[in-house]
Amino acid sequence: MADRPAPLQARDKLTFLLSLVPYLMDHDRVSVQVAADHFGVSEEQIRDSVRLIAVSGIPGETAAYQPDDLFDIAWDDFEDNDQIVLTNLVAIDDSPRFSGREAAALIAGLQYLSALPENSDRSAVATLMAKLARGASAMPSQVAVEASETNTTLAVIRDAVAAGHQLEFDYLNSRDEHERRRVDPLRVESVDDDWYLRGWCHLREALRTFRIDRIGDPVVTEEPLSHHAQDVVLPDALFEGSPDDLDVEIAVASSALPLIADYIPDGAARVAHGNLVRTTIRVSHFHGLKRLVCSHPGVLAVTGPEEARRIVAEWASAGAAPYGNDVSATPPLPG
Length: 335
Description:
Blueprint: H1 10-26, E1 30-31, H2 32-39, H3 43-53, E2 72-73, H4 75-81, E3 83-84, E4 86-88, H5 100-113, H6 122-135, H7 149-163, E5 165-172, E6 178-191, E7 194-201, E8 206-211, E9 215-224, E10 246-253, E11 271-273, E12 276-283, H8 286-294, E13 300-304, H9 306-320
Antiparallel strand pairs: 1-3, 2-4, 5-6, 5-9, 6-7, 7-8, 10-12, 10-13, 11-12
């Protein structure tokens, strides 16, 4: 004789009922047996709980329980076919819901995230999108995330991760040098509008970070991964320094300090001057510094060394010249 599940204690029974109602809402029709298997309880416990739900509710405006103030089920289906179908919900439907536009925006974000290689459980993402659509106060607009070159590269990375194979690609580094790399893809991350692949580079025999929009001609090889995400300790910081990095002194608005935290080495002094903070960042070369300054207009200025100031100023002047702008006349940062 099979062991019967132990009866639930009062506190566990409440927790079970609070879990059972959303489960039944997500399943328009479910058999008692399937529900019992899902929760690991006996079929009789499911039947008793459904009967209890059917006499639960909240008092209406008359302070007395009226039919619409109680949960209800399709009793014929329940008694004759052992099927559970909720026909009336109480209070739960009165909770705040996402608008159709809010749900559409969230669904679009989930569509994009489902394309990332680390999000392998796409069935869970699809289920969540369906729940958002059902739970919105209005039908969400039909949305689709437009594919781009980055999306195409992400798809190849996803295929490499799913197959457990190494990835080969041409890489244009920040010095405008092309190299063919072979990498064990480990993780995809984003900073602002840019996406990065973190992986074990077989050319450098070390962990490396690659900007995805600089990756060209990606190919999934037949070679199995030699390093896996669970076997490699990935630093929290996206960018790792090297002994050849250059120190650059900057003044940055205090509100923007978290945006460049990855560039500030441990132990670097931070001196506040009004709304500005003066500190030091480390960059691999001044070419990358130009892009960093450009991405934080009006909140970050290079204060030293003089070579760094000159290179950034010349680059900014060259970019502004076709528009007739005088960069030298740009007012300094506030504070």
